[in-house]
Recover the amino acids of this structure.
């Protein structure tokens, strides 16, 4: 950590900071410059919020951290890339894993039909929401356990493992009983009680980036899960909020290689929420392969016009089929396969 | 709701949309323009996400809602302003309510001393976190129930009611047993399971705006709480995330009068998180009075340098005293009093 | 345009709006709903800011435009895609055009060497700044006309046409004398005097998206150029400003297919400014091919460490060579060639 | 400047960086930490973009500047606050200066009437656009020199000096002949050719913050003007672009005290563009006084419904009168007067 003193900082102020730094267990290395004095602090910064609090000490201009605040999720900790198993599939290796299905589980027929459709097109994992975090309390909130049962039936019939969202800590054991992978949605990326809870089960976790979260914050949330003993975390870029209004969100594809520079965890892309515009999903899916994503998660509905939620961004079966054909052509260029 | 057809939409596509609109229980009024045909749909739009899904029907360019999606929180529902009682204080009337105290409850001495300090300066409600939503799993996570007990002791000694954050649904009954007001933090603004739970208890709720939430989304979250029967919701502007990096967040003061145009609920301002910069807290506090806020929530610590969290934005006792003096001068201009 | 009346609007207010609408040359079609009355206005909305001003008329809640405000740049005006010739190259057809070179022209040797390097790797157009819009008045401001002469010499020796930025209207004739394509930088996207001036010369224009501009605003700026008679406009996505700080900007790749839905103009991507991080340029370049971009513009410097500007995001010759190899593998999948 | 080396940086990489640092005229002070080595560089950083370019040297993780990049505009350069004279008025002292008038000069009658209205209400400076930077080429572009003449006539009749926008360098001499203060609009904040040109005339400049500019960038733009010899710069906060859509922009009131911490220049607020919503202008105006602004600039139109531009955010005469009454009540609290 580097502490920058104000131009007119007094000797007493300087000495006070040096003392504090030592008190917190760091070594202090002052550098006297032409316009500023800076103090290099040597020691492990993680969890030392007290050092940051020195920002308010008299004479201090700013405190700049040097180390990244996450450890278990970092590449410095683990050089080789992590591979997360979901059913018989591996996310993060040479396999490119496509998760697809409707936004919500609506009816038995709808989810069974969805599983058939996405399997036929080549997807390896079924997605579908049983617990829905809806912005309106008056909107359909999901079939809950009934939805989980239908997903399990779809898995049995199709052979596809499934990923589904869990929205509150008390539901984690229930959802973990049924699901092959637990999803933490964007709105819950910093729901720490929930992160800790999924960190305690033995199921892989799909962690979505919050709508206005930085990549470092996403990795801090992964760190939460990992700090409880669950290392099977897959990160997901799903678009961030900007002023642009043609799209629902701005899909930050540079996050894929950037997250891989900072972390060993697998990264997939959600072009459905990432753009919110059906016609933009196929090009962004191909681009996700190109930037090195380990997979995709895509909303597909047998009949989007009749969907209870997210109909406007759900692909029709034919469109998903075409998308998978396109993705297949791109995979060999990145030494990937379905 | 208005449906805009694409320039080249066919008669068949047009008819299909008209049929669907009727099927969903709306009346359809087509207007044929020089370059576009639009269809006005008459009926209650709330909860009708299926209508929105028509966006993907062939020939449709866009679907524009006319009504606001919240009802209980809206001014259309209730013209007169709501007043929320916390202890003997009233938020939303002529009283201007200041909530102050440390970010976290750290020790018995610290919280008792904090209560004395903020009371002496004129604050009416004590704040202090017992359950802390920290970005790092390695940071201090709060004293939990022990913290609630210390807050209760501080209340007994000082006579100040207290507000404290609750971060997960299962903790709601426990926190409600001790606290006078439950806080939903910015990161949990869309934690719907938590919103529903606080909607079921008989305690006032302080609902903070999410870091990248629009005002409408904040009101939708208030609607969640109210839809469960708890109408005592106070909204809080606490800064939104922008590209500006001198401040931690950008405090959107226009949100105060804007929220009051849309809703009857009281609105307070959190200049501590809203700016994240200690020196900016006093001017923003005065400005909050000027824009018509019903109160403030401010971080004050007996010794910010030693704070476990948020030290850099906590006011020192003398600074808070001065701030309250300034606020007192402003209140009469808005016909307010402490 | 749709005018939404407030719930309690009076008959007199309604009549006043109807009158005004007719006065501005529109037909008015009122639709009386259960909670609101809306008025559909038929006529050409473009340039009718007076209609928008009705938002402040008593009883009016909002005014929603239906038509896009640009015409010449729109796909509705021209269905087939435009192709812009630069030297013997065509941007917007099956050719994929790569523009590459240093941020600034620094010395004769540097620009001649750069031209050789980028040509050898397969780029078709040389880029290099002679007039530099620098955030600091104390930074290198470019070699100005001397830089243009060096670029012309590099063209002569390498056979590569060149694109260079023009930053003020009075320089347009001078720059147009030398350059094959004029660049309007992100900071000048809404410098309307400059847009009009480049609209009057017979040289193709590379128009970069402003740092916080929507796609519609970018198209409005293209409309400015086109309205003066110059139809040879190439759009460029170069990253928008967000709160993310690992990257310098967030490259919005969905803008490529989205702009192509709205407009017939060619679209290229600038991954150098789009990310600001050297290691992210190659993956974003490949992804640009995948989303359907018509080309790339990339900063390459013979010796980035010694660059006068943007060294940290300039590729080294070997890196650019590798990038071009990768791009070559991707092009056939989109039926493109260099 | 602090250079942070990567964890595994080699001795050779370290030595190379040390050499470069010395070559650029800095002293190097290495600090070897437990996980990282950092190098403190002593010397004047301004204009040294080459040092920043070291970010790409092998083994370097990041380069962090210590000094602010602006000098003339900084408080470190000049402790006492600057006062800028416009006519007989002083911006930046105890006087609170209100600039008001229509968005555009439309007709002789309109501008003369506007001057009367705003003067009667207490404004000291007339505003009005003769050269209009409009997003659409089909919108009214201003009366140009004719508009300047009308403004001069309004000044003669009312005694109010006037501020008007200049949008291109070649117009600066003409506008400076007529106007008492030159305005640089938000879209031109980084139009460096224009900044330099207004830096060369002897007229005060009103510099508006760009729509997505940081405060530091605003100060860098002020530095451009000052570096040419014109020190009479008034900064203006006019709202930044965010995802919030109830308001046109998000008015960042914390920018007023923050800019005053960084700079000695006066700062005023534009609540008209800052919010874009008429009803929000009065509360934000009062709040501007509270945060320490040196003045306001407000759009007022004799008949907003008929305005050629910005009608929806222009105040009606009665509303402006009321606003001025409110502002008058607030001024004494900040030891200000009109």
């Amino acid at each position: 950590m580097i502490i920058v003193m104000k131009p007119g900082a007094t000797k007493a102020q300087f000495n006070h900071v040096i003392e504090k730094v030592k008190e917190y267990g760091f070594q202090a290395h002052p550098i006297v410059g032409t316009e500023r004095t800076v103090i290099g602090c040597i020691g492990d910064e993680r969890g030392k919020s007290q050092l940051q609090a020195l920002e308010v000490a008299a004479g201090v201009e700013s405190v700049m951290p040097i180390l990244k605040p996450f450890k278990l999720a970092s590449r410095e900790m683990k050089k080789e890339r992590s591979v997360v198993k979901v059913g018989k599939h591996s996310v993060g290796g040479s396999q490119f894993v496509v998760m697809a299905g409707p936004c919500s589980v609506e009816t038995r027929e709808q989810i069974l039909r969805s599983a058939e459709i996405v399997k036929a097109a080549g997807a390896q994992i079924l997605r579908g929401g049983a617990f829905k975090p809806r912005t309106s309390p008056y909107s359909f909130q999901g079939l809950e356990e009934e939805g989980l049962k239908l997903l399990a039936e779809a898995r049995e019939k199709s052979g596809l493992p499934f990923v589904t969202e869990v929205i509150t800590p008390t539901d984690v054991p229930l959802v973990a009983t049924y699901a092959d992978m637990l999803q933490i949605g964007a709105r819950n990326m910093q729901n720490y009680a929930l992160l800790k809870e999924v960190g305690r089960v033995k199921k892989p976790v799909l962690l979505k980036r919050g709508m206005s979260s930085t990549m470092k914050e996403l990795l801090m949330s992964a760190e939460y899960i990992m700090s409880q003993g669950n290392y099977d975390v897959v990160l997901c870029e799903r678009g961030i909020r900007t002023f642009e209004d043609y799209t629902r969100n701005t899909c930050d594809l540079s996050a894929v290689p950037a997250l891989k520079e900072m972390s060993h965890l697998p990264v997939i892309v959600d072009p459905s929420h990432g753009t919110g515009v059906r016609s933009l999903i196929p090009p962004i899916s191909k681009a996700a392969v190109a930037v090195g994503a380990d997979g995709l998660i895509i909303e597909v509905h047998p009949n989007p016009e009749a969907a209870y939620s997210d109909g406007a961004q759900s692909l029709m079966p034919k469109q998903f089929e075409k998308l998978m054909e396109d993705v297949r052509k791109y995979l060999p260029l990145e030494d990937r396969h379905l």
